[in-house]
Amino acid sequence: MTQNSTVVAQMRQLIQMLAKHNHAYYVMDQPTIEDSEYDQLFHQLKALEEQYPDLLQADTPTNKVGGRPLSKFDNVTHVVPMLSLGNVFNQEDLFAFARRAEERLPNQQIEYDVELKFDGLAISLWYENGILVRGVTRGDGETGEDITQNVKTIRNLPKVLTSESGQIPELLEVRGEVLMPKAGFEKLNAENEAKGEKTFANPRNAAAGSLRQLDPNIAASRPLAFYAYGIAQCQPHHNQTTMSASLQWLTQFGFAVGERQFVCQSIQDVQKAYEQINQERPNLSVEIDGMVIKVNDLKQQQQLGFLSREPRWATAYKFPAVAALTAVENIDWQVGRTGTLTPVARLNPVAVGGVTVSNVTLHNIGEIHRLDVRIGDTVSVYRSGDVIPKVEKVWPEFRPVDAVEVHLPEQCPVCSSPVVMPEGEALARCSGGLYCAAQRIEAIRHFVSRKAMDIEGLGDRWAESLLHLDLLKDVADIYHLHEHREKLLTIEKMGEKSVQNLIDSIENSKKTTLASFIYALGIRGVGETTARMLANTFQTLDALREADLDALKKTPDVGDITAEWIIDFFRASHNLEVVDRLIAAGIHWDAPIAPTRQPLNGESWVITGTLSQMGRDEATQMLQALGARVSGSVSSKTKCLVAGEKAGSKLEKAEKLGVQVLTEQAFLDLMKEYGVYSA
Ligand code: IVH
């Protein structure tokens, strides 16, 4: 075998494995491997393709569309127009649809194919000799847009038709729908929200927005899927005689079809299938807005033909609306674990898609302004399957004269501390910190964590139960838990021994360092390093409490915004109260090394490469004891780089910037001189 054919064989094997797992994931809804394993296979293939671009396989799923962003989409005229469907909304209309068909097919038995009505975007796919050559949107039904580049990025769509049993048609035009499955939609929205980017109102908008991207790399990054529902052209003919069989025939080439489909012998059975699916709708992996009822026999379809732009052999049977109108009775502000304030609209309860909705999040004050929603307004509430309900729009025409505008509260609704909304941020926060009941659990977890007060077991194991028993109103109560032994013993799985261990580790935590204590307070923006810098600079807790903005800003590692947050924290009397109670409970520390003994105070050092005589942690601790800040990257502000064996790019950068470089030995000598190292 030549090297090329070995590479091709490897590529083919990977492509086949990926296709198999895609099928299991999208079609069977039963993933056979972990996502991370899939990614591994995927990256293996991608790496091969990068190494051997000439051997790239046409059906690769790596989305290597190779295209640049388009400036616009080309128009394409559909050879077979993409028509629409008539609608029925209830049993009576459904039966009338069946009667009309029966009248045109006297003395014939009619079988119905019942499919999911996907709520996505209709597209047409052209395959010539088994190769996907074109993907086109429905457009106005006559002319659509050429979105081939984007379509090729859809993972579950075969780019090359292969089949073990059947012959590959010379021409095949498949019709179907592009969708974003619910799970992918929620993940995409969560990721976008975390990045502060735009979220999509529903999977349909997300799918439409993704397909209409001129840059195929964007479409490639979106979790789109294609589901086939029809064959517009096939040469030579596929020889199937029914709708259901022709869809089944498509699956041999790797096309996904709906996860539910029924063949019904009577229109009464169609009604039952519809009711069943309406129930199961929240459990489906994709969004649907009804069912499509088709006469199953293809010959009968031909006999029935079309009436203007709609087939007489098919109709959509829509589900009751998933959007509903209701009134906003109030807008409350909820305080999250990290102090963020989220507005929640309390609604006059309304059924949306089979579920009663009485609360809906409005995300932030910006969203309230965008929607211009007021208390008393009529809104449409949208719910897609099991996706969280959302306010779609406000109906200003129904606005009562006494509708109340909503403003960001000035005080936290839970603890009455001032609400702050830093400039440029979307989220408002309660400044209550340790004092705010809503933020307690997080504050407690942070307070007891290893780098803070280091109270073992409390954060992970007991914090929630202690809160439920009302034993922890704030972190200072931790040091009074020993007064409640009896109550502690009522906690599930908390025996005498656990109680004693907990009380012992609380007692042991009382001796700490000023830096750990400052860190434990959970002041916004004050991480471990900043806490250490504050301890070194201010030396005592009292000095820190009284520090003004200027003094704080001068502290190494403290930026302007953090300086303000520190001021805010120590200005709040309830925080001071908690701090005082902690000190009164016996928390103490040795005075930090005085600045006179901190010759490297405020300097930024970087350690790189492998040190032979100690670990990096130890070297870091020595530098920190002398007041230096140890950073991970070299910049013009770096005072000195300690370069061990195999120092790479950091050393190069330091040399370029003229930063002083110390070998390990020179570093150790210096540490000896300062008295923090002896060997
Ligand atoms: S068959 C002659 N089957 O519904 C038209 N359409 O209102 C044949 N749709 O734009 C269409 N799921 O995109 C058919 N299982 C399904 C469908 C389906 C969704 C969409 C289709 C079309 C719209 C028609």
TrEMBL record:
Q: Might you give the EC number(s) for this enzyme? A: 6.5.1.2
List this protein's GO terms for biological process. Answer: DNA repair; DNA replication
Any single GO CC term annotated in Swiss-Prot or TrEMBL for this entry? cytosol
Q: Which cofactor does it need?
A: Mg(2+); Mn(2+)
GO: which molecular function terms?
dioxygenase activity; DNA binding; DNA ligase (NAD+) activity; metal ion binding
Q: Does the keyword Oxidoreductase apply?
A: yes
Q: Where does Zn(2+) bind?
A: C412, C415, C436
Can you name this protein?
Answer: DNA ligase
Source organism per entry reads: Acinetobacter equi
State the gene name recorded for this protein: ligA
